[in-house]
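Sat 14:20. Reprocessing the chain from the morning session after the first attempt stalled halfway. Input below, unchanged.
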Amino acid sequence: MQHRVYGRWSSCNDVDKCGDGAHNCDRHVVCGDLAGSFSCICNTGYSGNGVTCSNDNQCVTNTHNCAGNASCGDIGLCWKTDTPRPH
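Finished this time. Tokens:
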């Protein structure tokens, strides 16, 4: 990134906002560093604007990968219906 300062060119180093924590992203995001800014994208299984991300219950939204003979638990947990639920 170049900025003109008092009639001459000077280089400025961009700060990694994601790496140094200088962002306001939720903890359930992928933070992307951009020149002079950053972006926040909610992780898979979460939805929101990146500053706030809420857990999507995969059992309720039917986006889990559980087999037909398995029970579903939030965050993608699946278990056989004839075994105790995992902790």
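The mean pLDDT is 77.
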